Give the backbone structure.
Amino acid sequence: MGRAKQPKSIDKFQNAVGYLAEYSGVRGVVITDREGLVLVGRGAESPELERYAAYALEIIKAVRSPFHELLKSEIEHLVIKTSHDWLTIAVSVPLMLVVVADRQADDLLHIRITRSLEMISSYVREKYSFSSATDNSKAKNAKSLEAIYV
Amino acid sequence: MIEAIEIDDRIAKCERILAADPQSQIFAALADACRKRGDIVRAYDICQQGLMLHPEYASARIVMTKIHLAKENYEQAWTELQRAIDIAGRTRSTDLLEAEILIRRGQKSEAAAIIDRLSGNDPDDENIKRLLELIEKEETTTVRLESKAQHRVEPAVGPDAQGHAVEKKGISLPQAIGLLKITPRVLGVLAVGNEGLILEARIDSSHSKEEFGALSKSIYDNVVQGMSRAGLGAAFEVLIETSSSKIWIIRKHKYFLVVYSRDDVSMGALKLKVDELFGSMEL
């Protein structure tokens, strides 16, 4: 009987999340699926992380339409800075990485985010071959992800 | 006023000639007229394109030197001038320009030596007098110039230079947008009013600048609504990246600055330039 795949992949995602959460000024990091469901998170209480995930999805959805009208391409990164906060939403199909940090966090955080995204993409690609996915196979892969995480 | 009309006429004539023959060397005259009219960004674009076709055209190198001087790019002005001298040799005009660049770079003694030599031939030359005044003024404004001053300076060798030399002047919104637009890989820069109307724009896009501004404002508004619901405060900066481009929306007090670029733009350099040009600017 083979070992369940879930813990191994989750561990890998947790590595990516942990790498970000340990950075000074980072308040919360979440990886969600395309529906905004939290797969892994770190740095804040669970309800707070779920709230971040839900609002990140809402913001991405709200921005997608005018953005697509403007540039006819998909959003990969959305970075929002307020006087106190620095929110990054990075889309790595079929997942989304959400990072909430203090506005004053070091700019090098951006590099860590990029690196974490590479880790996430690489895990996903390795396991589910998303790099060459068509819409059809994306749906299929999403389904298999759902089976693993839910 | 009369001079402005003459320059406009000259621009129109040059444009007609260039339209009829895109290979024409008239581009240099057109660029110089644009420079004199104060449209430095257009002057630069025209001259740069023309020099790609006619790299050995010394007069165009001289025009480019003056454009760089107006943009306060003294090192580039120096390089262009030396290329012009290499191609066509030294003239009184190149010596005057050289003296001015040296003054701007703070090398006053070298500049004074050139001016001294030139004034021996024609002590009443107005250009010499202007350069001497410039040296005197530089003595009191060196510190301001070192901070990559936010003012426009006309080369002292032209008749249009009088009264502009080393005059501290706040950079205008159109000038700042023009200067940011010529940054490598920047495809468009827009200032959008709070109502979504364009205040000033220079953009390469299939969309009209009005459409681009309105959609950018809509993106910003949607972000603000989402942030407000998340209890995260009002956004003052939004950056969106795709595989091929970036849109950066910055909230200023009375307008939004929208910078549209290729994805491989250097954000660090871009941020520095935005700070430098728009840091303290409000309408």
